[in-house]
Structure formats: structure tokens, C-alpha cells
Amino acid sequence: MACHRGVGARECNEVRATDGQLNIAPPRVLPMPRTVLIVDDERDTNDILASLVRAREFEPIQLFSGAQVVQEVQEKAPDIILLDLMLPDVGGFVICDQLKRSRATNLIPIIMVTALQDVSHRAAGVRVGANGYLTKPFTPDKLYQTMDEALSWRKEHEEKGTEGEINFDVRSELTYLQQANDMLSDLFLRTPLTERQIKDLKQVIMEMGGNAIEWGHGKNAELVLRITYRIDPNAVTLVIQDQGPGFDPKKLPHAASDEDPIGHLDLRNELGLREGGFGIMLAKGLVDDFRYNEKGNQVTLVKRFDVKP
Ligand SMILES: Nc1ncnc2c1ncn2[C@@H]1O[C@H](COP(=O)(O)OP(=O)(O)OP(=O)(O)O)[C@@H](O)[C@H]1O
Ligand SMILES: [Mg+2]
Q1: What structural domains does the chain harbor?
Q2: DSSP string, 77-141
Q3: 172-183 confidence digits (pLDDT tens)
Q4: Of 56, 156, 186, 218, whose CB count within 10 A is highest?
């Protein structure tokens, strides 16, 4: 007699016959062991991490170099990845980038484990989609806290409806990058947009969010930037709103136009502005619809896609 095997279960009860009748005992569902993939070439650190995650009832999978990581992740689909940045062969950033670009592995939270406290590494990690940071030396509490955050990130993504409107508030450039990454993971999961299209959209979000923080807010970290995105059956709509005074997008002599992409550069020089003036032109070309509100402190971006078969 076949055994009822629930999804995610690894054991169940047999069918028992009593009094000539067949009774099916309720399946004894044991949850699949949760796994943490630990990638660290320092054996001591790797072993310590393994025993710490074991104490939390996770099963560790230990790797000591970067080369097999992607394949291991594809095969074992771990619940969390603890990834050392300084591996002898492939760098942690490269691995993280690769995993985050694949739809199959995109939602597995990656915690960067690093001895580098440098903020620029943190920003670089965020750029390639890392979900958390753990700086060596770390305490068990800090590890568990980072793991909990990573798991709730994943849960949140899994629970989101296919269609919905998501708002988030951003204060600093770093939180902006982090949240934009989260949003892109979501878009990747829930729309048929290709990797290339998501990359383009990321560029658009970076340009427009960057403008809001730089020009709208004058880099004042007290001001909150609001980003909303909505996924519809055949399009994703993004709204980026700042609290600045706005501007007139029709009057931008210090920015590039399609007719004359470099004519503004001399004027920028005269005005003492940094090099640039390409963000809006670039962003416009990468989406299907691009419009500012009347005030100029809110931009709406629409990217369409074919409906899933
Ligand atoms: N949210 C905003 N609030 C106020 N002014 C803005 C805003 N966004 C853009 N601007 C104005 O529009 C100009 C053109 O923006 P654009 O993104 O094209 O170029 P840039 O930001 O100056 O340079 P680049 O994007 O190439 O680094 C900016 O220089 C700024 O004057
Ligand atoms: Mg810009």
C-alpha cells in the first residue's frame, strides 16, 4: 500500500488493518531538516559555524572553497547560505551575484561572512544582492539574529501575493540599495521579466532613486524616500517619490537630450556641476512609460511584459 507522503515530509505511517477494516493512520509528518550551507576556507571558523547552526537544529553543509558552491546550492537548495568573502578561488561577491541572478536560487538568503568591516564592502555586497552581514569575530547571538532576519526576509517574499502593491521607505543610500535588491528579487520571482530586463530595471531604479536622494533630498538622510511597486498581470509599475521641491523636467539645459546627448556638458562645467546629466535620458529609454508628476518630485515607471503562458 502506498504511503501518503506530504510535501516537505520525510516519513509517514503505514496503513494498518484493524477488525478487517483498513484504517489509514494520520501521517506522522516530520519536517525536512533545515539546512545551512557554510562556505569558508578557514576550517576552524567553518566548524564553529557548523556547531552553532546545529545547536539551532539546522543541518550544516560545509564547503571549504568557492568552486562547487553554485552546484551545491542547486542540488541541495539550502535554507540559508553563510558565505565567506575571502575564498581562495572564487570570490564571495561573484558567487553571490551568480546565485542572485538565477531564478532557481534567487530567494535563498545569503549572509556574507567577512572580517572586513569596511563600509564599501558592505555596499558592494548589497549591490550583488546579499541579504545580511556577519562580521568576524561574531557572537552566537549575532549569528542567530542574522539568520532569523534572513529567514524572515525569505518568508516575506514567499508570502507576498502575485499581485500587490508594496511600499517601502528609504532613508540612506545603503538601505535604498538593500530594499531595491529585495524588490528586484521579488520582480524576478513573480514576473516573466528576463534577467536582462531586470538588470535594466535595476539601472532605472538606481538612477531615479539616486536623483531623489541627491537632488530631491540634497542627501539629507532624515528625509524619507517612498517607493511603491505594483505587479499587474502584464506590467510592473514603480513610483519613486521624494520630499524635495521637485523640478521641471522640460527645462534641463544641464542634462542630455535625445537630440543632443553631449551639448549640456559645457554648461555643467560652467555651472560647476559634477559630470553627468545622463540619468533621466538613460532611464527613459529602458522602460515603456516614464512620467513625472506636475511638481516633479514623483516619477512613475512602467515596464510591460508578455503574460505567462
Ligand atoms: N528628484 C529630483 N528632484 C529635483 N531635481 C531633480 C530630480 N531628479 C532630477 N533632477 C534634476 O534633473 C537633472 C538631470 O538628472 P539626470 O539624472 O539626468 O542627471 P544627473 O543626476 O545630473 O547626472 P547623472 O544621473 O548622469 O549622474 C539633475 O541634475 C537635477 O537638476
Ligand atoms: Mg541622475
Answers
A1: 34-159 (3.40.50.2300), 164-304 (3.30.565.10)
A2: --SEEEEES--SSS-HHHHHHHHHTSTTTTTS-EEEEES---HHHHHHHHHTT--EEEESS--HH
A3: 787 788 788 888
A4: 186
